[in-house]
C-alpha cells in the first residue's frame, strides 16, 4: 500500500484490515514489528510517499493461515488494508488479489 499526504505532515499510527460489510464486519490491527522497511509510527512529510512491507511468514507464524481462520465467517473478497493517521485521515484500499487468492486457498483446507 502506498500513501501520500498532499497537505500537511502526519504520522501513520496504525495499519489494519477490514473484512466484511455492514454490521457483519471486523477490524484487525496489523503487527508491524516484522516489517522489512520500518516500524509504525511512520512520519510522512508533505508530498511524500511511503511503503511498508509486512512479512506474512515470520518466526513460524503464518499470517495467511491465521487470517484464513479469522476471516472464515466473512467474504474474503471484501478484505481491505487500512492505515490511520494522527491527523484524522484514514486510508483504505482493497487488498491485492494475489493475497485474497492465497487466503482462499488456505480456507479450503479448514
Could you outline the blueprint of secondary structure elements for this entry?
Layout: E1 2-5, E2 10-21, E3 24-29, E4 42-44, E5 48-51, E6 57-58, E7 61-62, H1 63-70, E8 80-85, E9 90-94, H2 97-108
Antiparallel strand pairs: 1-5, 2-3, 2-4, 2-8, 6-7, 8-9
Helix pairs in contact: 1-2
Structure, explained:
With 110 residues, the protein is of the alpha+beta class. The protein has two helices and nine strands. Strands 2, 3, 4, 8 and 9 form a five-stranded antiparallel β-sheet that branches. Strands 1-5 form a two-stranded antiparallel ribbon. Strands 6-7 form a two-stranded antiparallel sheet. A hairpin with a 2-residue loop joins strand 2 and strand 3. The chain starts with a strand and ends with a helix. The model has no long low-confidence stretch (mean pLDDT 80).
Major sheet characteristics: 5 strands, antiparallel
Structural class: alpha+beta
Give the amount of beta strand, in percent.
Answer: 35-45%
What distance separates the N and C termini?
Answer: 28 Å
General form: globular
Overall mean pLDDT = 80
- Low-pLDDT runs: none
The succession of helices and strands, N to C, reads: EEEEEEEHEEH
Per DSSP E runs of 2 or more residues, the count of β-strands stands at: 9
Query: Could you estimate the helical fraction of the residues in percent?
Result: 10-25%
Q: How many helix segments? A: 2
CA radius of gyration: 15 Å
Amino acid at each position: 500500500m502506498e500513501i501520500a499526504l498532499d497537505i500537511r505532515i502526519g504520522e501513520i499510527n496504525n495499519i489494519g484490515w477490514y473484512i466484511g460489510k455492514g454490521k457483519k464486519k471486523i477490524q484487525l490491527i496489523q503487527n508491524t514489528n516484522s516489517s522489512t522497511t520500518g516500524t509504525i509510527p511512520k512520519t510522512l512529510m508533505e508530498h511524500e510517499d511511503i511503503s511498508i512491507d509486512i512479512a506474512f511468514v515470520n518466526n513460524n507464524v503464518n499470517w495467511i493461515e491465521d487470517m484464513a481462520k479469522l476471516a472464515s465467517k466473512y467474504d474474503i473478497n471484501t478484505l481491505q488494508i487500512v492505515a490511520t493517521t494522527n491527523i484524522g485521515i484514514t486510508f483504505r484500499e482493497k487488498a491485492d488479489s494475489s493475497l485474497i487468492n492465497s487466503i482462499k486457498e488456505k480456507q479450503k483446507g479448514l
